[in-house]
Amino acid sequence: MDKLLSLTFIGLSRGAVYSAFALALVLIWRAARIVNFAQGAMAVATAYAAYSVTKATDSYWLGFVAALVGGLVLGALVERGVMRFVDHSAPLNNVIVALGVVLVITAIVGMIYGNQFLPFEGPFDQRPLMVGGTGLLSPYDLFVLGTVLLIVVLLALLFTRTPVGLRMRASAFAPEVSRLLGVNVAGMLTLGWALAAAVGAVGGMLVIPTELGLHPHAMDLVFVSAFTAAVVGGLDSPVGAVIGGIFVGLVLTYSTGYIASDITPVAILVLLLVVLLVRPGGLFSTTAARHV
Amino acid sequence: MTATEEVENTRTQGATTLARASTVRGGAFGRTLVRHAVYALVAIVVLIVLTSALAGTGNTFLNYQLAMVCAYLCATAGLTFLTGINGQLSLGHGALMATGAYGAALTIRALADRGIEAVWAVFVALLVGVLAALVVGAVIGAAAARLRGPYLAGVTTVIAIVVPAITTTFDGIFKGDQGLSFVTPSPGAVPALLSNEEWQAYLGIGCAVLVMFLLANLISSRFGRQFRAVANDEVAAKLSGINIARTQVLAFVVSAGCAGLGGALMAAITQQAAPGAYSLTLSLYLLMAIVIGGLGSLAGAVWGALLLVALPDLSTRITDSLELSPDLAQKLDGNLALAIFGLFLIIVMIVAPGGIQGLVRRLSGRLSARRRSAGS
């Protein structure tokens, strides 16, 4: 019972990160109908920026801000510099170009920092606090949960309560009409990419201290888990992404806790296949997307 | 457009597809078969001459590289068939190559344990590698046939990451990160006449030409048109009586078999099967090779396979020639090729979607047009 409880808390914290990352994927999917396969690599790039800033200033928080700003800039750059010019008539094209971005980013960070693991510390203790003899949450887990909750609330407020959020939703929903009504649709698209990349950057900052360290491929498995989370929730639903993230985090933690510690990749594959084959549109979808 | 109009429209499209299909039956196919057989024979002769010429230079590494091009070609041709012809994107072909490689490696080791080190053991190993990839391909293909676009890309990405990781999960059989190493049997009776690298090159040439010959015939056959029809317009294909799911699973299985052969060859050439060689990066490399080579044509797959061997080699030469500090050289090693590949991929996708083969075709078209206008 103690094990179940502590695994649940670990899973929640792990799932929160997947939620943030899945949310970033959903943001871009809703704005541009693109699954951003470069999300993981972009988050790695911002984490390297944070590493450099933290190393120079000796402050984790300045590094965190650097990652956030770096995410905004990188997202806008990728959209304005690359994605905008892709022919979107075939869905294969933007996936392939995003993979090109992955190769370029991986190569560049590899050239600057090398391909070895770099130490990457979090700001808080990662040992769980003991409550009645059971290790539950560590201060770092609380920080992760709090940050993700803050992101979700801020994004919800942005999209439902502000004029910019309304414009972003309008230009994703009906680009032509929005343009006629004077909305800067291209600008909103860039803003969507920038926001998503910033959220992804925060996700990277939160997850990398819990893993082996900073590495050009540090986010590969996280990206795959977050993609699974986004698919579980349905790519169109931000709420679904958050719930999907928590769900995936719990399933992965239980399977590593109860079956074997290195089963994570297999568990992701099984989970993704089951969801896609049983409910291809995600657990929260209402309509069928394809008729053949 | 109303719903009935739409149905009417797709029905006419379907009818034209069928009509076009029926005009290219019969004698034409026999002629195509002969033409492809002649191409294959010419390719074999040219490549055998090339192998002995390369052996004559005394640099055995060149024949090793030729063998690697052939191994990559099996995989890129298979991927071209799946992505270019049938329209299914797979980011997991590196994993299918790994399946073939481990199948072959386990077979060679099992046979060697029983004291069998004859040349036919290699062929058995290649066959087992292909069969293993066929089985895995059938499983993935059955799932893939229900998925489209980004979902399919996501699942195949997971496969590309998961399969190498499985070698660590079951390290009793697969020996974890270290991988399986073995000695590939070679015709040792005539070592003076045939070096190990030449033997590997011949092996590779045989497999690559076989794959190209079979795929070329498959693409220009009745089935080939079905594969294309499914890629171009699923509704029209379905109305023409094509079983979409079966066609897609079949395409995936064929493609997986080719990738498995490529992987098995790679294992036989490098004499080992280790997860590091079959990472997600390999899958991305394969996709990138066929895109840069020219998506949708087997000639593009040849360009892609050449690039996969030539570009890393070129980037190593560049870093070697720059006389950098060892630290910087180590950082550039491999990453430079990665950066060049990535940039090429983006530029080709945006500027020249036809890839190298598209450029070649456009150039030769322009030349023949000029000749025609000069003649008249």
Automatic annotation (TrEMBL), chain A:
An annotated GO cellular component: plasma membrane
Membrane-topology descriptor: Multi-pass membrane protein
Signal peptide as annotated in the record: none
Molecular function per GO: transmembrane transporter activity
CDD domains, alphabetized: TM_PBP1_LivH_like
Superkingdom of source: Bacteria
Keyword Oxidoreductase: no
Compartments where found: Cell membrane
A Pfam short name: BPD_transp_2
Name the UniProt record assigns to this protein: Branched-chain amino acid ABC transporter permease
A GO BP annotation: amino acid transport
Manganese listed as a keyword: no
Keyword vocabulary terms for this entry: Amino-acid transport, Cell membrane, Membrane, Transmembrane, Transmembrane helix, Transport
Family: Belongs to the binding-protein-dependent transport system permease family. LivHM subfamily.
PANTHER family in UniProt: ABC TRANSPORTER PERMEASE PROTEIN, BRANCHED-CHAIN AMINO ACID TRANSPORT SYSTEM PERMEASE PROTEIN LIVH
Transmembrane intervals: 6-27, 34-53, 59-78, 90-113, 142-160, 181-208, 214-232, 239-260, 266-289
Automatic annotation (TrEMBL), chain B:
InterPro entries membership: ABC_transp_permease (IPR001851), LivM-like (IPR043428)
Chain ranges passing through the membrane: 37-55, 61-82, 94-112, 118-144, 151-170, 199-219, 249-270, 282-311, 332-356
Pfam families in UniProt: BPD_transp_2 (PF02653)
GO CC aspect terms: plasma membrane
Membrane topology per record: Multi-pass membrane protein
Gene Ontology MF terms in the entry: branched-chain amino acid transmembrane transporter activity
Superkingdom as given in the UniProt entry: Bacteria
Species in which this protein is naturally found: Virgisporangium aliadipatigenens
Keyword field: Cell membrane, Membrane, Transmembrane, Transmembrane helix
Gene: livM_1
KW Translocase (keyword) present: no
Subcellular locations according to the entry: Cell membrane
CDD domains: TM_PBP1_LivM_like
Name of the protein this chain belongs to: Branched-chain amino acid ABC transporter permease
Major subcellular site: membrane
The keyword Transmembrane belongs to this UniProt entry's keyword annotation: yes
